[in-house]
TrEMBL record:
GO cellular component, one term: extracellular space
GO terms of biological process kind: cell surface receptor signaling pathway via JAK-STAT; defense response to virus; innate immune response; positive regulation of immune response
Signal among keywords: yes
Organism: Anseranas semipalmata (Magpie goose)
Keywords: Antiviral defense, Cytokine, Secreted, Signal
Principal localisation: secreted
Lineage: Eukaryota, Metazoa, Chordata, Craniata, Vertebrata
Pfam family, one: IL28A
Signal sequence, start to end: 1-21
Example GO molecular function: cytokine activity
Protein's name in the database: IFNL3 protein
Compartments, as annotated in UniProt: Secreted
Tagged with keyword RNA-binding: no
Family statement: Belongs to the lambda interferon family.
Length: 186
């Protein structure tokens, strides 16, 4: 009896020590991007509607950009998996920041569903960076593009940035799909 009581106390003490050794937040952080391999059709329709509505109004304005922000000499598939996640997180940060303040009020309603989807994807990507590659250093290709993005944010007009964000939404979604496919992206 004494031996079994001792065993129970030992198991409880070890269990408590193990639970305390791993903070609850650390146990919850996982990277699951599988739902972005094939986004729900309703999400894609919302993004398409926003893009089409913007293109209709864009033709009426003068939006000339000096930076070809989304034109790259490399593909997302060429990047490592951590670089892909960082790339898409940066793209989504940019798109959400720009589209969060639509210049045309009639676009605001169309933006809501698409922005909610993009915001959720960015949050999921941030969880992946925190869980899988908190100290990852981006490759030279990616660092150069991130620098180009930061320069464009400071030098380009709001109209140019909005145009770039919307016109390349589907490229961003393809990049998200590639990040979600992990090593299987080609």
């Amino acid at each position: 009896m004494l031996c079994s009581t001792f065993a129970v106390v030992l198991v409880v003490a070890l269990g408590t020590a193990l639970v305390g050794a791993f903070p609850r937040e650390a146990l919850k952080k996982t990277c699951s991007l599988s739902k972005y391999r094939f986004p729900a059709p309703s999400e894609l329709v919302a993004v398409q509607k926003m893009k089409e509505q913007f293109e209709d109004t864009m033709l009426l304005t003068d939006r000339k950009c000096s930076t070809r922000l989304f034109h790259r000499r490399w593909t997302t598939a060429e990047l490592t998996v951590p670089d892909r996640v960082i790339l898409v997180e940066a793209e989504l940060d940019f798109v959400i920041a720009v589209l969060g303040q639509p210049t045309a009020h009639k676009l605001a309603e169309t933006h809501q569903q698409a922005l909610a989807f993009l915001t959720q994807a960015r949050e999921d990507l941030q969880g992946c960076v925190a869980a899988e590659a908190p100290s990852h250093q981006p490759s030279g290709k990616l660092r150069h593009w991130l620098q180009k993005l930061e320069t464009a944010k400071k030098t380009e007009s709001a109209g140019c940035l909005e145009g770039s964000a919307i016109l390349y939404l589907f490229q961003v979604l393809n990049d998200l799909r590639c990040a979600a496919q992990r090593q299987h992206c080609t």
